[in-house]
């Protein structure tokens, strides 16, 4: 099949992973974490945006939705570009566009310009996302990608942890515009890391046998898991911020701090889920993750259960851990089901699913609170999230359990007649433990 080479080949399953593969993973994960931080930093700033620009909660949801929709629509062409010209080139271009959109947003004088700036940022993010994911795993063999993606997921969790704090501090200490200015130097730092640590891609012919039907089932199930994960996460963050600041009287910083526990638990859950997916398969990991999220949200939806203060904190534990367990297995299943020649496009599909899910979560959150930010509306939204995890999430997990072990392939190196490197396939038992 097609491989990517930069002077070093991806390690075989029994080899030690080379240092440059870990550095490449770190650079790409940092770029992806920047996109993740965008959603949480901006969400914290939205109530202040609404006060200055005279916009209500429903109108403010378009600041998130515009970003996610533009992000999602750019992902497929972005993934195709990654497969054609390489992850470094596409990632650098995307970071430049993302930073330009941040400048426009920081200077916006009305809500319309702010929404337009989010479209520009979304286009840049749509280029960065598939480039960063494809580049991150290119140095790892398929049966080791769960652990690598666990670090990837932990970076997203850390970004979710840092984002609300950064957004709260900038909003309180300066104003909401500082949240947009923050992304200009941050994008420059991420671009420098990609330039130095991610090599140019060298491509060879794809000699992989066809198994398109089975692969498509796995990729489709993984995309559904990704979409639902982000719909629940972004929706919960949005309604949580609105409720705590508008109804409970928290400051932007106080509301951000109250939600950092979820982000911390996501960072803890992601590496664990990577090891579990490598050992026991993606289906079990996904089912456990959705079950924990449904448990936490379902209990919070019960009248009389505290929604704020110390009493609510223990109920956030299963939500955060469950979300953290859902980042890795979807990516692992989808990437291992296709040749590396298609990693850019599959990465774009996964990112599209996540962003469309996030956009849906923001829209549903805005709709749930359109009649007012009240406790009843909050609990109804939480109950809806729990139901989605059970009704949609668990069947998707079952699909990965039933198909993932028979469709994913282990890529083993063999000499290529055209130079560079190629991989031969054998049936993958990673879905049942990779042994």
Q: What string, H for helix and E for strand, traces the elements in order?
A: EHHHHHHHEHHHHHHHEE
- Global mean pLDDT: 76
What multimeric state do the chains show? single chain
**Strand residue percentage:** under 5%
Question: Which bin fits the share of residues in helices?
Answer: over 70%
N-to-C terminal Cα separation, in Å?
Answer: 22 Å
Index terms:
mainly alpha; 75% helix; disordered N terminus; two-stranded antiparallel ribbon; 14 helices; globular; 435 residues; Growth Hormone, Chain: A; 4% strand; two-stranded antiparallel sheet; single chain
What would you say this structure looks like, in words?
The chain is mostly helical and 435 residues long. It has a single domain (15-199, 211-432), classed as Up-down Bundle (Growth Hormone, Chain: A). The chain contains 14 helices and four strands. The protein has helices at residues 19-53, 57-85, 87-106, 111-137, 145-173, 177-181, 183-197, 212-247, 252-280, 282-300, 313-324, 327-336, 343-368, 375-407, and strands at residues 4-5, 202-203, 409-414, 422-427. α1 (19-53) packs antiparallel against α4 (111-137) and α3 (87-106) packs antiparallel against α4. The two termini are 22 Å apart. 60% of the residues are buried. The model is unreliable at 1-9, 202-211 and 403-435 (pLDDT under 50).
């Amino acid at each position: 099949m097609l491989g990517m080479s930069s002077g070093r080949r991806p390690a075989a399953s029994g080899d030690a992973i080379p240092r440059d593969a870990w550095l490449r993973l770190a650079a790409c994960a940092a770029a992806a974490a920047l996109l993740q931080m965008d959603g949480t930093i901006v969400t914290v700033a939205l109530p202040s945006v609404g006060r200055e620009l005279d916009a209500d909660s429903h109108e403010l949801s378009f600041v998130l939705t515009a970003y996610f929709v533009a992000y999602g629509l750019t992902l497929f062409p972005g993934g195709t570009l990654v497969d054609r010209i390489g992850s470094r080139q596409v990632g650098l271009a995307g970071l430049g566009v993302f930073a330009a959109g941040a400048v426009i947003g920081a200077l916006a004088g009305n809500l319309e310009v702010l929404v337009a700036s989010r479209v520009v940022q979304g286009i840049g993010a749509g280029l960065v996302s598939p480039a960063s994911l494809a580049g991150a795993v290119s140095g790892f063999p398929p049966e080791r990608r769960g652990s690598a993606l666990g670090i990837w997921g932990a970076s997203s969790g850390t970004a979710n942890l840092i984002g609300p704090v950064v957004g709260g501090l900038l909003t309180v200490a300066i104003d909401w515009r500082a949240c947009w200015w923050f992304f200009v130097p941050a994008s420059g730092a991420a671009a420098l890391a990609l330039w130095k640590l991610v090599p140019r891609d060298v491509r060879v012919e794809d000699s992989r046998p066809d198994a398109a039907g089975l692969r498509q089932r796995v990729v489709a199930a993984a995309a559904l898991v990704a979409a639902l994960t982000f719909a629940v996460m972004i929706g919960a963050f949005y309604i949580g911020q609105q409720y705590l600041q508008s109804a409970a009287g928290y400051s932007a910083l106080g509301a951000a701090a109250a939600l950092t526990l979820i982000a911390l638990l996501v960072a803890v859950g992601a590496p664990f889920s990577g090891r579990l997916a490598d050992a026991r398969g993606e289906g079990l990991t996904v089912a456990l993750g959705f079950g924990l999220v449904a448990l936490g949200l379902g209990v919070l939806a019960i009248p009389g259960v505290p929604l704020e203060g110390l009493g609510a904190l223990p109920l956030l534990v299963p939500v955060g851990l469950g979300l953290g367990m859902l980042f890795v297995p979807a990516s692992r299943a989808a990437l291992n089901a296709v040749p590396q020649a298609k990693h850019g496009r599959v990465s774009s599909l996964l990112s599209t699913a996540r962003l469309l899910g996030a956009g849906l979560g923001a829209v549903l959150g805005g709709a749930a609170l359109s009649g007012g930010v009240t406790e009843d509306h909050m609990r109804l939204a939480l109950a809806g999230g729990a139901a989605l995890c059970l009704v949609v999430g668990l069947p998707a997990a079952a699909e990965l359990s039933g198909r993932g072990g028979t469709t994913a392939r282990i890529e083993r190196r063999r000499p290529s007649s055209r130079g560079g490197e190629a991989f031969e396939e054998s049936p993958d038992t990673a879905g049942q433990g990779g042994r």
